[in-house]
Amino acid sequence: MKYQVGDEIIVLLSNEEGRVVEIMNDQMVMIEVRGVKFPAYMDQIDFPYFKRFTEKKLFAKKPEPKVYVDQLPKEKPQPNQIKVADGVWLSFIPKFSLDDFNDEVVELLKIHLVNRTDRAYHFVYTQQFLGETDFELRADIAAFHDFYLHDIAFERVNDSPSFAFDFSLVNPEKKKAPHYETQLKLKPKQVFKRIEEMKENNEPTLSYQLFTEYPEKTEEPYFELGSLAARGLKVYEASKARQHMEPARTVVDLHIEKLTHSWEKLSNLEILGIQLNEFQKWYDLAIAHHQPSLIVIHGVGTGKLKDEIHDILKTKREVKTFINQYDPRFGYGATEIFFQY
Fold first, then answer.
1. Helix (H) or strand (E) holding 332
2. CA 163/CA 124 separation, integer angstroms
C-alpha cells in the first residue's frame, strides 16, 4: 500500500496539501484538506516532498524589495475556486474489502451530508431500519461544506433503511419556510445496481439530492370575508373555530368492519388506504382540539397497519412520544399517542 493513515499528501489538481485520514480500499483514500474530509483516488494525490524540494532556494539571492499591501495586484478568481450551488445531497461512500475468494465486496457505507448551497442549516437527522430508529443527530452544516454523519453495515441495506431530515435556516429569512422536512428510502435492488454503475463509471460515491433550493414560505390565501358573508356563506371567528369542528375522539377503532360495510370485496391495499385515511382524520382533529393524547386501535394481525401508523408518527413534530404496550382493553392491538404543543 502506497499510503498510510497520517501521511502528508498534495492534491494534484488544486496543489493543496492535506493528510490521509483513512484507507478506503486499494484505489481510494479519505483525505483531509483545510479541515474538510473527502474521498480521493490515489492517482489524484501524491507525496508533497518533491514539491517542497523544488520550491527551496538552492542559491542565496539578493533580498527582494518590500511590497506593501496596497501595492499587491488583486487576484483573479481561479476556475477551481468557483462554487456551484446545486442543492443539498446525501452521499454514500462504499468501503470495499476482499472476501475469501479475493473478490471485491462492499463492507460498509459511509454517510455524508453535502451542502452545496450558500446557506447554513440546522438539521435533525433520523436513520431507521425497518421502521425502528437506529441513529439520531442534531447539528449544523455550513454553506458549501460536507458533514460526516455515520456508517452503516452494507448488509443492512436489506432492512429498508430510511434517512429523514428536518432542515431550518441558521439565519432565518422572512420569505423562507420555517423548516423543511424530507426523507430518503433506499431499496436494495436499486442500491446494488447503482454500485455496479458507480464502479463501471469510476465514480467515488452514490449521491441522492434532498432538495435543490430551500423552499419559500407558503402564503396563506386571503379571502374577503365581508363579500363572502354577503353572499350567504357562513363566516366564523378563528377564536371560535373549534366550536364548529367535528368533536374529537380519545379512542379510535380502525378495524375495517367498523369503517365500512362492503369491506369483504376490497383488496388488502384498499383496506389499508381506508384505515390510514380514517387515522389521519382523527389525528388531525386531535391536534386541532389540542388533545393531550389519542389511542388508536389497529389490531394485531400482520402488523402492517401498526407499522404504517408508527412510521407516520415518527415524522410528526406534534408527537411527543407513542407507545404500543399491553392494555387489558385492547391487548397489544393499540398505540397510545402523546402530543406536545
1. none
2. 11
